[in-house]
Amino acid sequence: MYEARHAPLASRRRFIRRIVDHSVLVIAVIVVSLGVGIAGYRYLEGMDWIDAYLNAAMLLGGMGPVGPELRTRAGKLFAGAYALYAGMVVLVAAGILMAPVFHRFMHRFHLEEDEKRGAKRIRSR
Fold it and tell me: How far is it, in rounded angstroms, from Cα 83 to Cα 6?
């Protein structure tokens, strides 16, 4: 998916396409995660759809749950597991979004380093 160390730097068009692909993947992960959260709150706690959405969205956004205290044991277990999962989703999503940018930076750095080494070898001959 990414070019090798000594391969030329990807074109700007390919780089933008890579960012778009990664963004689509992150959006899909977030939508699925939000759906799981909504379903869990809805069916395990009996919340209205809008309240289930709000709680799931707030946890995925890192803000924490909103609303009344949870009533059922299953709902509490779900909320705890979902909170841990939501925290990991945020970290994974950030990593997926930053991967193309970080790779391009490191690839450019290595290409420049290789060019400097090549120039030193030519001068020393």
Answer: 42
Which residues does 113 contact at the CB level (< 8 Å), separation at least 6? none
Distance from the Cα of residue 70 to its chain's centroid:
29
Q: Which domains does the chain have, with CATH numbers?
A: 12-98 (1.10.287.70)
pLDDT in tens, the chain (125 residues): 777 767 777 788 988 999 999 999 999 999 999 999 999 999 999 999 999 999 999 999 988 888 778 999 999 999 999 999 999 999 999 999 999 888 888 877 766 666 666 655 555 55
Q: Is residue 89 classed exposed, middle or buried when 0-12, 13-18 and 19+ CB atoms within 10 A define those classes? A: buried
